[in-house]
Amino acid sequence: MVTGDLLRVLPDRIRRWASNLPPQRQAGIEEIRLRTGQPVECIADGKSFFVKDAQANDGLLVFTREEASQVLNKLSLHSVYSMEEEIRRGYITIAGGHRVGLAGKVVLDAGKIKLIRDVISFNIRIARERIGVANRVLPLIASKEGIKNTLIISPLNAGRQPCCVTWRDS
User: Fold this and answer.
1) Which is it for strands 150-153 and 164-167: parallel, antiparallel or unpaired?
2) Does pTM top 0.85 for this prediction?
3) If I label 42, which of 1, 10, 101, 163 is the partner at 20 to 30 A Cα–Cα?
4) Is the separation of the CB atoms in 75 and 82 below 8 Å?
5) Where are the beta strands (DSSP E) in the chain?
6) What pLDDT band is residue 103 in, cutting at 50, 70 and 90?
7) C-alpha angle 7/89/156, rounded to 5°?
């Protein structure tokens, strides 16, 4: 669901579009991709689509450089400097557990990322609770002695069915 936490960081045009979606369509949105000069792209129910804009010449809602600046300011609460470490990692986690991936010009110092500047792209991944996802694996990793050290691996968007469970006794 496109919650208030997410709506807060979106530019006005995209926020209006997301707010006007029927609740069932909102619930299916997994990602919102914002790339400067490109149409806004969404992943919903495992399928990609571009956001339509009846007022645009080509009928698509294109993300602007000005909107990129707005998103970065909203993500950082107008203090990009205070988010320097998160930006250096390439993503910012916002309220609700949603993650926003960032892309821009990378400045290196001794082979390590010093900062990302001129951020022009955002990939918003919407966090959601998956009730019951662990039911199949819980008996494999839990015992009277406790939970074993466990690593669960699955491909992207496959949170409903982990493909590999491994553990080691320590």
Assistant:
1) antiparallel
2) no
3) 163
4) no
5) 29-35, 41-44, 47-50, 91-93, 99-109, 112-125, 142-143, 146-147, 150-153, 164-167
6) confident
7) 65
